[in-house]
Write a structure and sequence with these properties.
This protein is of the alpha/beta class. The protein has a single domain, classed as Rossmann fold, CATH 3.40.50. It contains ten helices and ten strands. The strands form two sheets. A six-stranded mixed β-sheet has the order 6-7-8-3-9-10, sandwiched between helices. Strands 2-1-4-5 form a four-stranded antiparallel β-sheet, covered by helices on one side. The longest helix is centred in the last third of the chain and has 16 residues. Bound molecules: adenosine-5'-diphosphate and magnesium ion. The site of adenosine-5'-diphosphate has 11 residues, from strand 2 and helix 1.
């Protein structure tokens, strides 16, 4: 579904991502792990079209999207939830925020809205409240829902649990796992490698902007390198 080949991405003279390759198969939950600064977020931003690549190709659903602008990529069904997403629009209600997300109009908006409310019942209860009144965790649920309104086939999610209380983290992850079981393909960045490997099918490890190791998450859990570096 997504094939990233030889992807490089720089910040001026800093070569943040070098010749990275990734494959995300339809239906999978694939994770990208690695130490801070290893290039995970840059890789994801570049795939989603928010950062220009310095080489390589990104093929999604048969299209070479390497040079596409973000809006066109979203329209094709690849959605992106950045780390600490630009927050929700505080003066609007929760429902208005969700309807804003629905511009891609693939399928019925009211049906998708219903799916979001089913996934996060709390948002349904508070649909008429201003989004600014939500806690950090609730805003993250709203941010996820807004992305779901574009009816993605593949969702890129960068570190959704950062800054959230453990109980909210669990809710966010339960929702992502459920979405994946219902058919949404997910590429996830998660700082906590134990958690990342526990919930995913396949994992890529980046180090200093390059691929170092990959494998099924079960194999990775048993890999001495991964255990020594991340799971010790
Ligand atoms: N906006 C930026 N400007 C300059 N350098 C950056 C910027 N964002 C990230 N970097 C650098 O690029 C490298 C990769 O960062 P990043 O992709 O954020 O890593 P990760 O998400 O794995 O923590 C790091 O060396 C980081 O310092
Ligand atoms: Mg990051």
């Amino acid at each position: 579904m997504l094939t990233v080949s030889n992807l490089s991405s720089n910040y001026g003279s800093i070569r943040a991502v070098r010749h990275v390759h990734l494959q995300v198969h339809e239906g999978s939950l694939t994770v990208l792990i690695g130490a801070n600064g290893s290039g995970k977020s840059t890789t994801m931003r570049t795939i989603a079209g928010y950062k220009r690549s310095a080489g390589g190709t990104v093929v999604f659903d048969g299209f070479d999207i390497s040079r596409w602008p973000p809006y066109r990529i979203v329209r094709e069904g690849l959605a992106f939830l950045p780390e600490r997403p630009m927050s929700v629009v505080a003066p609007l209600t929760i429902e208005e925020n969700l309807l804003l997300g629905g511009y891609a109009k693939r399928g019925s908006i009211s049906e998708t809205l219903g799916q979001c409310y089913e996934l996060f019942p709390l948002l349904a209860e508070r649909r008429r409240q201003h989004a600014g009144s939500l806690s950090g965790g609730e805003q993250q649920m709203l941010a996820i829902s807004r992305i779901l309104m574009t009816r993605p086939k593949l969702m890129l999610v960068d570190s959704p649990a950062i800054g959230l209380a453990p109980s909210v983290t669990d809710q966010v992850y339960e929702a992502l796992i459920r979405l994946n079981r219902e058919g949404l393909t997910i590429l996830l960045i998660e700082q906590n490698a134990v958690m990342a490997l526990a919930i995913s099918d396949y994992a890529y490890l980046l180090n200093r902007g390059e691929n170092t190791l990959e494998g099924s998450s079960v194999d990775m859990q048993n890999s001495q390198e991964v255990v020594d570096t991340y799971l010790a």
